[in-house]
């Protein structure tokens, strides 16, 4: 049986002909967010291979990464790309992705991973929190039914991926004696990085193809992308985000409650400032 038969959903599940194009066609912010997300998800085989190598000897985790996670992430990319092509057929998606992939490949290296494998799993929890929050926010932003269906599928996948990384993190934490301080440092470090790299690179290459005459205008790039990110910021599911971020710290309930409010404010700034 092919793995595709076990996917929670498939591209064929979505009926692109049902897209209410008029609801999204003129929303340039949404276009930038969806197209940049489609680039990042479509390039996920790069970081999957880095992770598989990083966890050499952990056959169970390697198998899941290779046989499940990579397939689901690439499907996210295919589905988002199909949506973008349907609504904005004039956009040259292939050229944009080709340029993105060449750029992204130069920075998406194994050196970016945490040397301690357990802490890399904690870092993955941050990344999956970010993507789950992104698609939940995108789901809230739109009332286009097919896009709501798609973003809900992807959000559910990302939450499930988070749970898988978290369970493996717990195994490494117990076995290697990983403490809260080092876990916290890793979470904070990855939070600070999450905005800077892949999403920023993807937005840059979407912008360059969408507005070739402004490709070297950094001020215009910042203006356009800041507006799009502002749209997300207004819809970030802060409570869900903070709960997911706090979980790897395994704090006492009282401490957890004390931290939720300030961390909600910090998270909003670090994710999408």
Automatic annotation (TrEMBL):
InterPro entries: Ferritin-like_SF, RNR-like. It comes from Luteibacter jiangsuensis. This is Ferritin-like domain-containing protein.
């Amino acid at each position: 049986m092919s793995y595709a038969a076990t996917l929670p959903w498939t591209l064929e599940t979505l009926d692109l002909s049902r897209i209410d194009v008029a609801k999204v066609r003129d929303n340039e912010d949404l276009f930038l967010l969806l197209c940049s997300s489609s680039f990042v998800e479509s390039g996920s085989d790069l970081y999957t291979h880095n992770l598989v190598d990083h966890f050499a000897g952990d056959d169970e985790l390697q198998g899941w990464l290779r046989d499940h996670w990579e397939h689901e992430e690439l499907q996210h990319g295919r589905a988002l790309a199909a949506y973008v092509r349907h609504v904005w057929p004039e956009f040259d998606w292939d050229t944009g992705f080709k340029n993105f992939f060449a750029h992204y490949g130069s920075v998406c290296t194994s050196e970016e991973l945490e040397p301690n494998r357990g802490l890399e799993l904690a870092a993955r929890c941050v990344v999956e929190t970010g993507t789950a929050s992104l698609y939940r926010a995108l789901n809230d932003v739109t009332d286009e039914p097919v896009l709501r269906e798609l973003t809900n599928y992807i959000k559910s996948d990302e939450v499930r991926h988070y749970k898988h990384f978290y369970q493996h993190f717990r195994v490494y934490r117990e076995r290697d004696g990983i403490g809260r301080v080092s876990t916290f440092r890793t979470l904070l470090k990855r939070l600070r990085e999450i905005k800077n790299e892949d999403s920023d690179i993807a937005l840059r290459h979407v912008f360059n193809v969408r507005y070739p005459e402004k490709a070297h205008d950094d001020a215009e790039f910042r203006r356009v992308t800041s507006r799009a990110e502002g749209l997300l910021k207004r819809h970030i599911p802060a409570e869900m985000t903070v709960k997911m971020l706090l979980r790897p710290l395994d704090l006492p309930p009282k401490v957890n409650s004390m931290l939720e409010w300030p961390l909600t404010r910090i998270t909003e700034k670090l994710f999408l400032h």
